[in-house]
Design goal:
This protein has 430 residues and is of the alpha/beta class. Helices cover 38% and strands 17% of the residues. It has 2 domains: 2-226 and 412-429, 3-Layer(aba) Sandwich (Rossmann fold), CATH 3.40.50.2000; 240-409, Glycogen Phosphorylase B (Rossmann fold, 3-Layer(aba) Sandwich).
């Protein structure tokens, strides 16, 4: 089967949507499918084009993941196609875009629009390839119309996969504010969604939101993110990061790892760390990058119980996640069911409890019933009290950590992708 994937984020981005889109493409190629990807150069979460990549049109190749093996991502900007083998490489077309260093509402829109414009001719160029399936990943919604057009002209099926409800989140967070704009964009979103053969999202609650937006129930598919238990698992020894950072094994490490943006609500973690400043038995480790990082570091000036780390390479991710005694997952109010944090599954697979902020009855709250604790967004006092309780009772953390591993098994990589692949094949056969 020929599969064309269209989306702004892709491997080798280490966090968020790019990680999953890259693994999906490699896995499908490893099943013997021909896969092409139209994407941008890697820029997230740093909001600048990564070193070693130019912000221009490029054609690259990524090795297919062999069936039921977790091969390391290898990417080259080879000038000629690799020798034919049983597994064809993923063909990646990089398209330039404008990347604002400090993205605001209008800047984000322009950023997404530049990718939609630069990728349009490349997408049109794929019509002669005659894909069987065109899979577009949102965000950005801007790419949906051209994906539908290319699918129609190619005689292919069109599939929209929603990682984030970007429109709702942008207005709920105040990134965009105009009421008339919200009404117009939501109508356009509804119009586009209803014209895809399949529309998927990553949690049951997010799938329910698709129904609220008017997508027919027989077109809605649950397509969750996944975790590879061969890559992330509990270590039987202390993490190497403890020795590197000089952290005693008796110290309770509260770890946040991932994007540092506006929807994460990391200001609350800084305030909780301030309340714990006199407690030498708790250390906060904040690892990642994003538009809010510099502001957060200024807010945390003078706090010696916070350690800042850069994003770590994939080969060190398991060591990093095992550094934690408690994983922190803050979120702002209003976004808990518009996004499902992709970092959650790695936290669970590492065998550590998760302390999160989310509204009741959200998907995140449901997932953490037996392996973590959820407090209301902005309730820093309860967040602080829960953290101290776990810090003082390692036996509770151990029990919750075992449950976390069991929950993570539901979202095993090959199990999730095999189920979705069956749906892809059935759709194309129709």
């Amino acid at each position: 089967m020929r599969i064309l994937i269209h989306g702004i984020n892709f491997s080798p981005e280490l966090t968020g949507i790019g990680k999953y889109s890259g693994e999906l493409a490699q896995w499908l190629a490893g099943q013997g499918h021909e896969v092409r990807v139209v994407t941008a150069p890697p820029y997230y979460p740093h909001w600048r084009v990564s070193e070693g990549h130019s912000n221009g049109w490029q054609k690259q190749y990524i090795a297919a993941e062999k069936e039921y093996l977790a091969d390391t991502v290898t990417e080259t900007s080879a000038l000629s196609e690799p020798a034919a083998s049983r597994f064809s490489p993923v063909v990646v077309y990089r398209c330039p875009l404008w990347v604002p260093s400090q993205p605001s509402g209008l800047k984000r829109l322009l950023h997404l629009a530049t990718f939609a414009l630069s990728s349009f001719p490349v997408m049109l160029g794929q019509i002669l390839w005659r894909a069987d399936l065109v899979l577009v990943v949102e965000p950005p919604l801007f790419c949906a119309p051209q994906a539908q057009l290319v699918a129609w002209l190619s005689g292919a099926k069109a599939w929209l996969h929603i990682q984030d409800f970007e429109v709702d989140a942008a207005f709920d967070l105040g990134i965009l504010r105009a009421v008339w704009l919200k009404q117009w964009v939501l109508r356009m979103e509804r119009f586009l969604m209803r014209r895809f053969a399949r529309v998927s999202s990553i949690s049951p609650n997010m799938c329910n939101k698709l129904l609220e937006k008017g997508v027919d129930v027989d077109r809605v598919v649950l397509f969750p993110n996944w975790v590879d238990a061969g890559d992330i698992y509990p270590l039987t020894r202390p993490s190497l990061f403890r020795a590197e950072l000089g952290v005693d094994n008796t110290v309770c490490v509260a770890l946040y790892s991932g994007n540092m943006g506006e929807k994460q609500g990391l200001e609350g973690v800084i305030e909780v760390a301030r309340r714990c400043a006199a407690n030498s038995a708790v250390l906060f480790v904040l690892c990642g990058d994003g538009v809010a990082r510099n502001r957060l570091m200024r807010q945390a000036q003078g706090l010696r119980n916070i350690c800042w780390l850069e994003l770590q390479p994939l080969q060190r991710l398991n060591e990093l996640l095992n550094l934690a005694d408690i994983h922190l997952l803050p979120q702002r109010a209003g976004v808990s069911d518009l996004v499902m944090p992709s970092k959650l599954l790695g936290m669970l697979a590492s065998g550590r409890p998760v302390l999160a902020m989310a509204e009741p009855d959200t998907q995140l709250s449901k997932e953490l019933q037996v392996c973590g604790k959820v407090v209301a967004p902005g309730d820093e006092q309860r967040f602080y009290e829960s953290l101290i309780e776990w810090a003082n009772h390692p036996e509770k953390r151990e029990l919750l950590g075992k449950s976390a591993c069991e929950v993570a098994l539901k979202w095993g990589k090959h199990r999730v992708l095999a189920e979705v692949a069956r749906e892809l094949l059935q759709l194309c056969r129709r």
